[in-house]
Amino acid sequence: GDQLPQMKVVLRDVAPLYEDVISRWQINDKNVLSLQKAMAHGDLDPVIMNGDEFFDGGHRVVAYWRSGRKKIPAIDISHLLKMDWNKWFEGEVEF
Questions:
Q1: Using one digit for the tens of pLDDT, what is the confidence trace for 13-25?
Q2: How far is CA 4 from CA 22, 88, 95, in A?
C-alpha cells in the first residue's frame, strides 16, 4: 500500500494519565510552562497510547492537567506495535 496508516485521535481522561506520568517520569517544569503557553493557540499534539497504557507525551499530559483540562487528545498505536510490517509493505494487509 502507498498509504501510511491513518491515526485516529480520541479524547482520553487526563486524570489517570497524569497519575501514571508523575509516578514514573521526570517532569521538567520549564517544558510544561512552555507547553501551557503554546496551548493558548490550540491543542497540543496528541499524546501516544499503547491501548490503555501511556506511551509518550508526559509533559503534554502535565501541561493539560495543570491547565484544568479533563479530556485530552490521544492516539492509540497498539495496532501498529502488533502489526506485521513486512506484510504491510508487501501489500498483504491493510488498515
A1: 999 999 999 999 8
A2: 33, 10, 9
